[in-house]
Amino acid sequence: MSFELFLQASKYNYSIAQVYLGKCYNDGYGVECNKDLAFNWYQKSVENGSIIGEFYLGNCYEFGTGIVKDIIRSVYWYEKAAKNGNMTAKLYLADCYRLGKGVEKDEIKAFEYYENLARQEIADAQYQLGNCFYNGVGTKIDETFESHKILAEQGDINAKFRLGYCYDEGIGTEINKVKAFELYKVASEKGNNNSLYNLSFLYELGEGVDKDDKKAFELIKKLAKKGDLSAKYKLAYYYYKGIGTETNKSKAFELYLAEKEYLDAQFQLGYYYNKGIGTEVNKSKAFELYKIAAEKEDSNAQNQLGFYYVSGIGTEKDLEKAFYWFNKAAENGNVVAQYNIGESYELGSEIDNNLSKANYWYHKAAEDNNKFALYKLGEFYELGKGIRKNEVRAFEFYKKSADQGFINSQYKLGHLYSYGTQIDINKEKAFDLYKLAAIGGNVDAQKCLAFLYKQGERTEKR
């Protein structure tokens, strides 16, 4: 019904209706999803003077929605919308300046945007401003602490929050959770919402104050009622986990559902539909939501979408599309996807076998200490798969993985201690590792452990 009304109004050049019609086509709401038509209607809305349409047009160019991806054009439309007062466009523009996307990198300009938006209680801007203070982006850390201290002493409420954050995170000073709590409390009582949010964390964790989950819940609920998006997500998490309240997964689901326009909520809703949390299991809806989030460059959603295509969950099985989304997620830094893409190249399941590329992606995942990738690298070096054999390197990778409790690596490490040629043989260490892996369910380790028991070599029967 909404789609039909928007369509009728759009024919009379009502720009806001054209924007909503574009969103219907983009999200598949009341009509089949069509990104090209979404772009066309956003463009028509702009021709009719829509400011929010300018933002959506920029968004289309940034992510290649219905049009060839063009970061420079996206910045152009973000700037147009920002000059016309669109807050979301200002936030996206700040990100562009911070990262140098489609524009010359300018951290000071990004900081200024975040600071101005944060003063207007834009939660995402407050979060990014905190990151700027923490990492010294567009500002100097030491100067930041001193300037906040001076302004806080003069009674500036926002400065009290920022000073509290400095004490909370140890920015320009030593960490002092008690001082952070005190400053957050004063600022929150004067209406600073960001302080209210951080106070809930301190109550939840028991940092700077006695742990009080109920108080944490009350503060987040209060902030969520004010419309704070981050607080709504946190409240959903509290209901999901039963923190400070009874577990209520239906309420958690409803909170995410109410914010389904936003990226984080779209991913979480996909997860809830996938697992049947607070609602019935619906793999098709989960797929649709993951796809929307994936197209907005959410790497977790991209990886999940790849898994859905591999397994044919909520959609038809399509190994080519699976590889595409795994690859997108991997390029966006998703460690699980980096492992998945490495496995695809190793096994030749979704793409032609290529051990060199498999080795590259396993190394990328291993940089973040992924235990599965570390195990695979150990295997590559042990067996000489696509690289020269090197038992010492294999041992190093297996050990890093085994230290994280991965039973297959524990078994392999035990094997090298038993039969290694470049590693000193140590039957006692081999026994201990086999035992760990065997308890975890590794069948090969169980067989080796039985053999060592039978032989009784260099170990007691324990």
Automatic annotation (TrEMBL):
UniProt-listed Pfam families: Sel1
SMART domains to which the protein is assigned, alphabetical: SEL1
Superkingdom field: Eukaryota
Name of the protein described by the UniProt record: HCP-like protein
Classification of source organism: Eukaryota, Fungi, Fungi incertae sedis, Mucoromycota, Glomeromycotina
